[in-house]
Amino acid sequence: MTIEVILPPRGRDYRLDLLRGFANWAIFLDHIPNNVVNWITQRNYGFSDAADLFVFISGYTASFVYGRMIVERGFVIGGTRLIKRAWQIYVAHIILFVMYIAEIGYLSHRYGDPNLNNDFNVAGFMNDPARTLYEGLILAFKPVNMDVLPLYILLMVIFPLVLWVMLRRPNLALALSFLLYLAARYFDWNLRAYPTGYWYFNPFCWQLLFVFGGWFALGGSIESRSLIRSRALLVLGSVYLVFALVMTMAGRFPEVAHLMPAKLVDTFNPNDKTNLAPYRLLHFVVLFFFISRFMPRDWLGLQWPILQPMIKCGQQSLEVFCIGVFLAVAAHVILVEVSSAIWMQIVVSVVGIALMTAVAYYRSWSKLADKKPEKLRPSPPPDRQQTA
After folding, report:
1. What tens digit of pLDDT does each residue of 309-335 get?
2. Would you kindly state where each structural domain of the chain is located, as residue ranges?
3. Prior bond to 373 cis, omega within 30?
């Protein structure tokens, strides 16, 4: 195999864990409507949000883990390990899917509020469970807030072929991904959802962020180094981030929107998340380039005790993400049915993040406990050959 990429150094990159942990926390907070605490997440200050970060880092991680495996052990082993990981995510999604619907059904009955079934898009399941369950198994039916994992599963299933190309011609793989993104936006390609509509995260568009993450991991960070460290990016990127902040605020506050031309505000509001609008993609790329510039791999902040819970949540990302989706429903119902006071918004947010962190630490401990220490492993039996 002729390898045209630069594999990242061995060892864990704790920046990825930190950013993935932040993304999980932010997704949980953003899934709680009318919650003052979610004003700390990035979606309120620009075009991109935690979903962009989650998808990008997922592509980055998949590339350097399975890319190295393909180089060292062959495409068959690396590719099948990728499919195995996709299967694990699929199983987690189905378990969460069942628990999610059961949770909403219970809460709807508990508080006598049938509107909850409509609010979370599970009314169809209550009316036709067999058909809806089938559509859920093939990822066509997705309750509210359960759109990310189906996208992740689909991207992981097709990624072995993408990675095969990327290991040989990384720039070509990125270029083909970009062409697919443009074609999907131009021809309105998307997958149908059940019972109506299309996928909230258009996989033909969002694959670009996933592939871009892989390209960045396999040498793209080195190719982009001069740009990342340039003064031009620092100045122009900063201007664009400020512009994105102003446009986002204009979409949220009419007082700000009235100060600018209506056509300008309407161009960026509402934010086209489904098809990953170009201005949204550019916002994320600039933001991540800034992170790469100011957060090197050996950044001392990664040792700060205050960041360890977030890093731990990033290390156990799948479990933390699933529990976050589950807890967001309970938090939303508490704010609707019990109290929507600011103190309650803070309580449900803090308690939710604390539970997500507890799951991460438990899962980390459990994995270590499953590994038998070397010193406790029985030594091989001695040679029983007879001596003359």
Report:
1. 999 999 999 999 999 999 999 999 999
2. 28-39+304-365, 41-303
3. no
